[in-house]
Amino acid sequence: MLLKDQVAIITGGAGLNGLGFATARLMAEQGAKVAILDLEAADPAGAAARLGEGHLGLVADVTDKASCDAAAAQVYAHFGRIDTLVNNAGITQPVKTLEITGADYDRILNVSLRGTLYMSQAVLPTLRAQQSGSIICISSVSAQRGGGILGGPHYSAAKAGVLGLARAMAREFGPENIRVNCITPGLIGTDIIKGKLTEEKKAEIAETIPLARLGRAEDIAGACVFLASPLSTYCTGITLDVNGGMLIH
Ligand SMILES: NC(=O)c1ccc[n+]([C@@H]2O[C@H](COP(=O)([O-])OP(=O)(O)OC[C@H]3O[C@@H](n4cnc5c(N)ncnc54)[C@H](O)[C@@H]3O)[C@@H](O)[C@H]2O)c1
Fold this sequence. Notes:
Largest sheet: 7 strands, parallel
Mean pLDDT: 97
Number of strands: 7
Distance between the termini: 33 Å
Strand order of the largest sheet: 3-2-1-4-5-6-7
Helix content: 40-55%
GO molecular function: oxidoreductase activity, acting on the CH-OH group of donors, NAD or NADP as acceptor
Radius of gyration: 17 Å
Structural class: alpha/beta
Protein name: NAD(P)-dependent dehydrogenase (Short-subunit alcohol dehydrogenase family)
Organism: Acidovorax delafieldii
Strand content: 5-15%
Number of domains: 1
Low-confidence stretches: none
Bound molecules: nicotinamide-adenine-dinucleotide
Pfam families: adh_short_C2
Family: Belongs to the short-chain dehydrogenases/reductases (SDR) family.
CATH class: Alpha Beta
CATH architecture: 3-Layer(aba) Sandwich
């Protein structure tokens, strides 16, 4: 098992069809104790219970610093260590540049970018004390190509901000054996795209992807396990594209 006795926190991990829950499941299968953090409405405790015995589900809002700090403290109090943080919580909005309001901008950036900062700040003192840890940030192909399929320009900006933040943290904390890496998923069939694309449109998009299909949540979970595990001990500051070849650069 690649993650035996490790403790992993996954934000936004309660959606059963989402990237976060698929990652939680694969990490648990690989021996990790998992803490799923999510909004109350998403029922993180219920999601954690589906992983089997010994996992934790906590209500936490990544846009709220006190909530992030409290959740990280609870995870540490429960498990006695933290090895991996997956900054996965994110929301999108399919609008064009001229339609983005200030409130839209705040909402989208607060979850992906501010949330990544606040949760990283919440776990870093523990990772420092351990002199080890892996932070994995879920960005998007949208950051690299100026729009994925569904997110607006503020979403691309938020996800590009995540790339910059993660690289800077990788540089800052590398000497303390804390690795920080990003994953840039392509188009993955989760609730975030549910009802927004017809089957014909999905087939059309698949034709433009070298691996000829949309991504599955499990495709991202595998990349997260790699970045959490000892298989990636010399990787930091990297951007791991998991997009079926949608963007080759
Ligand atoms: N699905 C895709 O095609 C795709 C592509 C690239 C990147 N991503 C990114 O992957 C991540 C996961 O997305 P998904 O597709 O699984 O969607 P999803 O909607 O299933 O998951 C997002 C989760 O984040 C949670 N969340 C929202 N606001 C939160 C907050 N303030 N605090 C804590 N949790 C919060 C939601 O409750 C939900 O469980 C997101 O960051 C998304 O931007 C998705």
